[in-house]
Recover the amino acids of this structure.
């Protein structure tokens, strides 16, 4: 597809994200399917959309240095300038002349001559004069495009060093990881098969089913297309590993969509037993069902209900294991969903922390006396993690953090920087993964 057409699609995606707060990863996936983009074109589109969002605050800082009447700059013009300056400053392989010419062409089609002249003038000045090197921008918030409130909050929680490392990591692409389907193939065989297609993978340290892709397009591989592999972050795999399931168990997954963890659980159980998989939104159940069918897993029962109402369905002491992969702010997956950092607030975090605690309080009695609960989130905010667990244990008398949880962690995590008395906080920069929190609770038999 012509690069001009791809840039038009990129512009439309960024404009929709900016106007409607649409989710970037969903918009990208939809666009790639709708326009049947080649792998090369899809990679180009993904790079510019994510890169523009990752660097948005820095790009606005650059724009404002070249636009005198910045308050009068129309939103769509700012979006067009953002994506164009991103290509000129951060993508060395993209020629400036192509970026400028095609941005002016888009401006002519979407606006009047004055706007196209403005776009041309700003981009030509950027080309001639250059912009400030991001490394010399002292303000961490501005340098790494993280809202000031978020940087301040993280610094209070973790200090300046960890906060700086997190913010800088969130500007980098993390390696893709996949999970093997153990009923079909073992990990070493999968790595060997991928190598035949020029795809370099290495074993994950987080899960015996995990492979980290170091080189190559694994999504184009026969193994992936034949459902021998499933895309899943290593931290997500670790959550299921720490659930310690066995074939024949009765499992509750309280917040199951889109289904990555629940299918992993079913695989660990050799598809023997039963998994009651719930989600608040009925429309997401089909995603879980499709995922299970694609992997030939039969023990997953997707159902719709608010996790805070599950005691209406089950008697106490029903389940061997319970997974609470709680709804959260998602501040640990900014690398994969960069728009999250602009759309969250302290109010969101406080609201979610209340929901998380309510879910734990509701489902805990459903656990058998010798059972385990794994609580996890894909955020790095202590109010949603440590503090939720601390409050839960304060409000209940017969649950504790399972002391064997820390011993069961992979060796390299046992002395990790995120270990607390409440669980394990994984930061995005430490192991080049998503930011993630998990812990394991057990019931005390009185």
């Amino acid at each position: 597809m012509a690069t001009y057409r791809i840039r038009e699609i990129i512009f439309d995606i960024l404009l929709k994200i900016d106007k409607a707060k649409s989710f970037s990863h969903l918009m990208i996936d939809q666009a790639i399917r709708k326009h049947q983009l080649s792998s090369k074109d899809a990679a180009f589109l993904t790079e510019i959309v994510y890169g523009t969002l990752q660097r948005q605050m820095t790009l606005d800082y650059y724009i404002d240095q070249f636009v005198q009447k910045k308050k009068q700059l129309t939103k769509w013009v700012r979006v067009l300038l953002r994506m164009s300056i991103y290509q000129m400053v951060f993508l060395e392989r993209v020629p400036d002349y192509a970026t400028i010419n095609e941005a002016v062409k888009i401006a002519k089609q979407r606006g009047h001559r004055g706007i196209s002249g403005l776009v041309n003038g700003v981009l030509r000045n950027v080309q001639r004069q250059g912009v400030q090197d991001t490394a010399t921008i002292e303000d961490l918030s501005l340098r790494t495009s993280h809202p000031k409130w978020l940087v301040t909050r993280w610094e209070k929680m973790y200090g300046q060093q960890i906060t700086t490392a997190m913010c800088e990591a969130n500007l980098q692409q993390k390696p893709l990881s996949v999970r093997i389907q153990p009923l079909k193939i073992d990990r070493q065989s999968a790595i060997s098969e991928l190598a035949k297609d020029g795809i370099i993978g290495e074993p994950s340290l987080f899960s015996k089913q995990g492979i980290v892709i170091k080189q190559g397009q694994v999504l184009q591989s026969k193994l992936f297309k034949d459902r021998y592999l499933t895309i899943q972050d290593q931290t997500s795999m670790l959550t299921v590993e720490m659930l310690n399931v066995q074939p024949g168990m009765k499992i509750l997954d309280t917040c199951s969509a889109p289904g990555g963890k629940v299918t992993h659980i079913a695989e660990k159980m050799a598809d023997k037993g039963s998994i009651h998989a719930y989600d608040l939104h009925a429309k997401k159940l089909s995603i879980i069902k499709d995922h299970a069918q694609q992997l030939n897993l039969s023990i997953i029962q997707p159902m719709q209900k608010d996790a805070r109402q599950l005691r209406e369905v089950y008697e106490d002491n029903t389940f061997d294991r319970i997974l609470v992969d709680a709804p959260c702010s998602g501040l640990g997956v900014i690398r994969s969903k960069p728009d999250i950092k602009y759309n969250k607030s302290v109010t969101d975090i406080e609201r979610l922390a209340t929901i998380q605690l309510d879910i734990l309080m509701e489902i805990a009695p459903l656990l058998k006396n010798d059972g385990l609960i794994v609580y996890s989130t894909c955020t790095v905010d202590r109010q949603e993690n440590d503090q939720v667990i601390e409050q839960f244990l304060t409000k209940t008398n017969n649950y504790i953090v399972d002391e064997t949880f820390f011993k069961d962690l992979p060796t390299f995590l046992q002395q990790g920087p995120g270990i607390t008395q409440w669980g394990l906080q994984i930061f995005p920069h430490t192991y080049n993964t998503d930011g993630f929190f998990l812990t394991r609770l057990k019931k005390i038999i009185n």
